[in-house]
Structures are given as C-alpha cells and as structure tokens.
Design brief:
heterodimer, A: about 200 residues, alpha/beta, Rossmann fold, Arc Repressor Mutant, subunit A, 2 domains, five-stranded parallel beta sheet, about 55% helix, about 15% strand, B: about 550 residues, alpha+beta, Arp2/3 complex 21 kDa subunit ARPC3, Heat Shock Protein 90, five-stranded mixed beta sheet, two-stranded antiparallel ribbon, 15 helices, 7 strands, ATP binding (chain B), transmembrane (chain B), transmembrane helix (chain B), Sig_transdc_His_kin-like_C (chain B)
Chain lengths: ~200, ~550
C-alpha cells in the first residue's frame, strides 16, 4: 500500500498578516500550511487542497467561524477544526468543542506549543477518517453493515441473526470485504476500521 | 415580606418588649410633671362639656410615644392616671373612679395604637404618602380622631353608661375633644420632636452661610406678608359682618406649607394660634369658641399636612436623585468594561502576529552576532510577557449574561473540566473529581458560575503544574460545598506574577459566587491549597419521606 499524500493545514483569519504568520509558523514545524483571509476562497480551494486540518478565526468580517465550520463539515466531513479567537467566552468555548467538533479553542495571542499539538492531533484524526472512508466507500450497504458488526467482534452466526440473512450470505459478504480491503484476517480488518495503517 | 396588610395587634405582642427599663423612669417622672402642668394650662379653654378646646398635654403624649416608641404606651397610661389622681382631676374612690380611670387611660392607648398603625401601614411602601414626614403627619391626625371615636365604646360598658347619650350634646363634646387634641398635638409635638432630635444629635443645625441667610430672610419676608394679608383679610371680613371665616388662613397655611415644608408650617401654625387663642380664652361664649376652634383646627391641619407633604416630596426627590447617580455610575462602569474589552481585543490581534514572529526571529538569530541575538531574544521575551498579560486580563474579565436556571452540580463540574482540559494536558496534570450525588442542584447563571469554577481550577493548575487537582463535593445542610484543592510544595504561592494572576481570578470568582448568594473561602489543609465554594441548594422537591431512598434519608438533616 502506498503512503497517503501528506495532508496540509489551512489557516483562516480575516487579518492577512496573522493568517500568513500562523501558516509560516506551522510550516516551520513540518506542518505544511496555506493562509486564507476569506472563507470562500478556502472553500474553493478545498477539493484540490487536500487539507487535513483548518485553523479558523471565530469572529470574521462577513461569515463567523461557526457558520463557516458548518459549511466546511458539509463539504468535507474528514477535516479537523481548531478555533482561535480574540474574544474568548465560555459559551463559545463550549460550543466550539461540543457543537462544532473543534479539537481546541485557542485564545489570541496564541500559545504556539498548544497550537502545534492541536494541529498535529487534527492531522492524525483526519488521516484516520480518510482511510476509513477510503475503505468503506467501495462497500455495498450490506457489506458495510456486515463490516461494522464484524469489527465489533460478532460471529458470523450472530451477524446473520441480527441482519436476518443466512450465515452463508454473511460468509459471501465477508469474502467480498476481505478481497476489497486486501486484509489478512480479522485483526487487520479491525485495525482498518480504526483508521490504522496496515 | 409581609407588609402593611397585617393588622397591628392581631398577633400577641411580645410582652418582654413592653417591660419597663430603669432608663425609662426619669422620663416618666418628668412626663408626669409636664403632663400635670400642661393639663392645668389648658383650663381657660375648657368649659364646653368637659373637654378643653386646646389641649397641649396631648401633644406631649404624642411626642413621647413617637420618639421613644409605642412600647412605652402602658407606662405613659399609668403615669397619666397616677398624675390625674394626685392632682385630683379624677376621683380615686367609688363608682366614679372606674369611670375616671378608664377615661384617663383611653387617650394614651388610642395614641399608641394610632402611631403603631400609621407606621405599620407605611412599612415597605415607597410613595410620598409613606415617607417619614408624611407618616408623622398622618399619625398626628389619626391619634385625636381615634381618641374621640373610642369614647363611646369605652363608656358603654361602665356602670353609669347612661351618661353618654348619642345626642347633639355628645357630638359637640366629641368634636371639642378632637379639636383640643388636634391643636395640642400639632402645635406642641413638632417643636418637642425637633428639640429632642437636636438634643440627641440626630439632626444638626445647618451652618449659616450668607446664601442660606439670604434665602431664610426671603422666606421669612414672604411668610410675614402672606400671614399678615390673611389676618388683615380675616379682620376685614369680620368687620364687614360676615363673621370669622377660615378661607384666608387656609390659603396662607397651604401656601407656606407647600412652599417651605414642616418647619415653616409649624411657625405659621404658631403665629395663627397665638393670634386667636388668647382671644378665644376669655371673650367668647362656648358656642362661639367651638366654632372658632373648628376653624383654627382646619387651618392648622391644612398647614401641617401641606408642610409634611412638601417635606415628603423633597425626601422622595432626594431618593430619586441618589438612584439616578447610582444608575449613572453603573452605566459608566458598563461603558468602561465594554471599552476595556475592545481595547484588549484590538491589542491581541496584532500582538498574536508580533509574538509569533518575535519567537521566530529569536530562534533564527540564535547563532548570529550576540548583539542581534540578544535584541531578538529581548523582543521575544517582551512580546510573550505582553501576550500573557492580555490572556490573563481577558480570561478573568469576560462574562456573558444569561438567566439563572436550575443546574445539577455534576453538569457544572463536567463543563468546567472540559474547558480546562487543554491546560491540564499542556502541564501534564490531572483532575480528580470525587463522585457527586445526582440530587445536588443549584439555581445559577451557568456561564458565570462555570467561569468562577474555571478560574479556581486554572489557579490550582497553574500553582501545581503536573500534579493532581481535586474537586470534592459534599452537601452541608441546605448548602453544597465544592472544594478545589491542589498540592503545595511551599506554604504560599511564590512570585509576584503568580500572585497577581491568582488575585484577579479569585476576586472575579468571589464576586460571581457572592452574587449567587454563596461564599468562597480559603481553607488550606495538610500540604494543599484549598478553596471552598459554598452555594445554596435548590430545595429538593417535597417528596414524602417514605418515597425517598433510605441512603438519602440517613444523610439528610433536619
């Protein structure tokens, strides 16, 4: 299996200078990053950009960070989000983490070590999500159901009962799954379901 | 709180409050003497039936009860009865004694009741009628009316009840009683009360400034003209054969009272009374005297109430002005807070860029000429210090506004844990939360209280990096106590910076907790710093005891 291409980081802030500075900081720390100052230019670049993590300001001129986060999630559910803000509030901190799936909520001036740690974590998470998506997208709906139960440790017989199909059919699906993933046994399937590289 | 709707004396009085104190005795002795003198002084105006038409002793009684409290009522009554007995006003033997003694008890009792009622009715109200000057005015009118109204009920059960027949003579004598008491109270009581306040240093005579002297002289001149005009007008009307008419006096009294308050009103009353009383004491027959005294009473009443109302209005205006000043102050603070938040924001944005670039510059120049490297390092250090300052200022200052709601303590702790989690990770510390009973619920503004708890946790994490901070919650009666503690190597946090940061966070946490009716106290124990946050619990729903699980019952108190 070939190594997946290295995921990039997008930095979004309506302050050009800060966006560029944060992007350069990340690049210096072996985290290739691009700077954006307008949300829609980042969304435009999304299909070709291969972004694993977006570092976004919350209070921006036209679109606020949370609205942007929803649009971004709809466009690509595998991108990790890190928020930064100059107006930190407890409500926002809770919202950023609970409702918008942000990995961290950073106050400006930014704590560099914390930012880098959060971005690294985000890229890892995104990589895993992408691998899981890549594997399961070739499955049929039934294969997906069988796969989900299989990696949770259910036997063929139990799966057959749960899905109300014959054990024979389960074995067929299982064979198809192994062929498609080129996995070598159940333990590798479980590893794949967790997004681990095999 | 229950206010004026409760009828006074509907509850049994706490009797010990009525007990005679040693310090009352000189007052009572003096009162007996003064009462006898004033009683005697009123005799020139008596004669119609049995009541005096100008009875200053009622004013003395009213002033003492108003100033010293209605708890003295029974003792004043006793003193009056004894005095009357000693000077021979009432017989102390035979059937007439019962009549005399009950008659002598009535005015004191009704006066005490009138004062208590007026005070009770005004409690907790804020309109002009319930302000102190007006309450005194109302009580001063209520007392004589109540006294007259109680004459027949008091007499009804006496052996010779037949003495009082509801007829013209009785009505006239009751009017006379009211008039005499009203005049006595309104003329004498204000002066006595004012003197008492002056002696006991409640009020001070305002310093006589030239400005004040000028205003005083102007007021005096105005009053003299008004009073003179009214007297001249009254005399002219009398000469013209229309008889004694109160209209000019009423007008003058209302004018003076409304313009300059109670002191001016009292002076005007004194002048008018002084003009008429000597005249009515000798030259008039009983019918004419009663008519004249009715007119005077009307004038005195209007003057006095007008003065009281004017003072009450003034007091209300002062209260309003004070509130306006406070509101203005609060508004200014709000603006100031919004401004400082905006300034912090404006600084933090460019500072973010500056701090990152300074750090980069420091790292990039580390190997170069020491002169350049030192400069870059210095710029970096200052940028980081400034960043830290901005972060700290904002962290402890930002507050959202929301409505108080019932919130389980567990939820509060979990939210706070979520917020401080990144800081814990950064310092490699851990947070231990002891199990919290699920029935502990507080009524709070969630955001604010979370902020308070987060401030405490941040302080603890900063003071003991890499260690375990613990939160232990327990119920204590009707409160919940949340203890945040962190291990200490030294007894006190070191360094002025640490201390300053902790101070601000702590002050804000304490303000928030106290606004919720709770307390925040430091109570260090065995090598750890501990802050205990107490909050009142929302009372549990009134479940019958047999529905509660046994473990809850064993833990509950009272």
């Amino acid at each position: 299996m070939t190594m997946p291409p290295l995921l990039r980081v997008a930095v979004l802030d309506d302050d050009d200078d800060l966006a560029a500075t944060v992007a350069r900081l990340l690049s210096r720390n072996a985290l290739p990053a691009s700077a954006f100052s307008v949300p829609h230019s980042l969304l435009d670049a999304l299909p070709s950009g291969d972004f694993g993590c977006v570092v976004s300001d919350i209070q921006m001129g036209e679109v606020d960070g949370f609205t942007f986060a929803e649009t971004l999630r709809a466009a690509d559910p595998c991108v990790a989000l890190v928020f930064m803000t100059a107006w930190p509030t407890t409500t926002h901190a809770v919202d950023a983490v609970r409702r918008y799936g942000g990995l961290d909520y950073l106050e400006k001036p930014i704590d560099e070590a914390r930012l880098i740690a959060a971005v690294r974590e985000g890229l890892d998470w995104s990589g895993r999500e992408r691998r899981i998506a890549a594997i399961t997208q070739s499955f049929t709906r039934r294969e997906r159901e069988v796969f989900d139960l299989l990696v949770r440790g259910h036997s063929n017989k139990e799966i057959a009962e749960r899905l109300s199909i014959s054990a024979r059919t389960v074995e067929d699906h299982r064979a198809a799954i192994v062929t498609k993933t080129r996995a070598n046994g159940l333990s590798q399937l479980i590893a794949l379901s967790r997004g681990e590289e095999v | 709180m229950m206010t004026g709707r409760v009828l006074p004396f509907s509850k049994p009085l706490p009797l010990h409050r009525l007990a005679l104190r040693a310090s009352d005795l000189p007052l009572l002795a003096l009162y007996g003497l003064a009462f006898a003198l004033l009683h005697w002084a009123s005799h020139p105006w008596s004669g119609l039936g049995f009541f005096s038409l100008w009875y200053p002793a009622a004013g003395l009684r009213f002033a003492v009860l108003w100033r010293r409290g209605t708890r003295l009522t029974p003792w004043l009554i006793l003193t009056e009865v004894l005095t009357d007995g000693i000077v021979g006003t009432i017989p102390l033997t035979g059937v007439a004694a019962v009549q005399g003694i009950t008659g002598a008890m009535r005015p004191g009792l009704t006066c005490g009741i009138a004062i208590a009622v007026a005070r009770r009715l005004s409690r907790g109200k804020s309109e002009a009628l319930a302000l102190p000057p007006m309450i005194l005015g109302i009580a001063a009118v209520l007392a004589p009316l109540l006294n007259a109204a109680m004459v027949l009920p008091f007499a009804m059960f006496l052996p010779d009840a037949g003495r009082y027949q509801l007829g013209v003579a009785t009505i006239i004598s009751l009017i006379g009683l009211t008039v005499g008491d009203l005049l006595g109270i309104l003329v004498l009581a204000p002066a006595l009360l004012w003197l008492a306040a002056l002696i006991e240093a409640d009020v001070r005579l305002p310093a006589i400034t030239p400005e004040r002297r000028r205003r005083l002289a102007a007021a005096l001149l105005e009053h003299t003209i008004v009073l003179t005009l009214s007297l001249v007008l009254t005399m002219l009307m009398l000469r013209a054969g229309v008889g004694v008419r109160p209209a000019p006096g009423l007008l003058a009294g209302a004018w003076i009272g409304l313009r300059h308050g109670r002191v001016a009103a009292w002076v005007a009353i004194l002048v008018q009374v002084a003009a008429f009383l000597p005249f009515s004491a000798v030259e008039l027959d009983d019918g004419e005297r009663l008519t004249l005294h009715l007119w005077i009473t009307g004038i005195v009443l209007v003057t006095w109430l007008a003065g009281s109302f004017s003072d009450a209005q003034k007091a209300a205006r002062e209260v309003l002005e004070r509130r306006n000043r406070l509101l203005f102050q609060a508004e200014r603070l709000k603006t100031l807070r919004a401004m400082s938040v905006a300034v912090i924001h404006e600084i933090s944005q460019p500072l973010s860029t500056l701090a990152i670039e300074a750090r980069h510059l420091r790292d990039a120049t580390a190997g170069l000429d020491p002169d350049i490297a030192d400069s870059a390092a210095l710029v970096d250090r200052k940028a980081q210090a400034l960043s830290e300052l901005v972060r700290r200022l904002r962290r402890f200052g930002g507050r959202d506004v929301d409505e108080p709601a019932a919130l389980p303590v567990m939820t509060l702790l979990q939210t706070a844990r979520q917020i401080v989690a990144p800081e814990l990770n950064a310092t490699l510390g851990t947070l231990f939360i002891a199990p919290v009973p699920p029935d502990l619920v507080v009524q709070v503004q969630e955001i604010e209280l979370t902020q308070a708890l987060v401030n405490l946790l941040r302080n603890a994490i900063a003071a003991s990096p890499g260690r375990t901070v613990s939160i232990i919650t327990r119920k204590d009666g009707e409160d919940v106590r949340i203890a945040v503690s962190n291990p200490l190597d030294r007894p006190e946090p070191s360094g002025p910076d640490t201390y300053a940061g902790m101070g601000v966070g702590l002050v804000i946490a304490r303000t928030i907790v106290e606004a919720h009716g709770g307390t925040l106290a430091r109570g260090d124990a065995d090598g750890s710093a501990r802050f205990v946050l107490s909050l009142p619990l929302v009372p549990a729903s009134p479940l019958p005891a047999d529905l509660l699980p046994p473990d809850l019952l064993s833990g509950a108190r009272a």
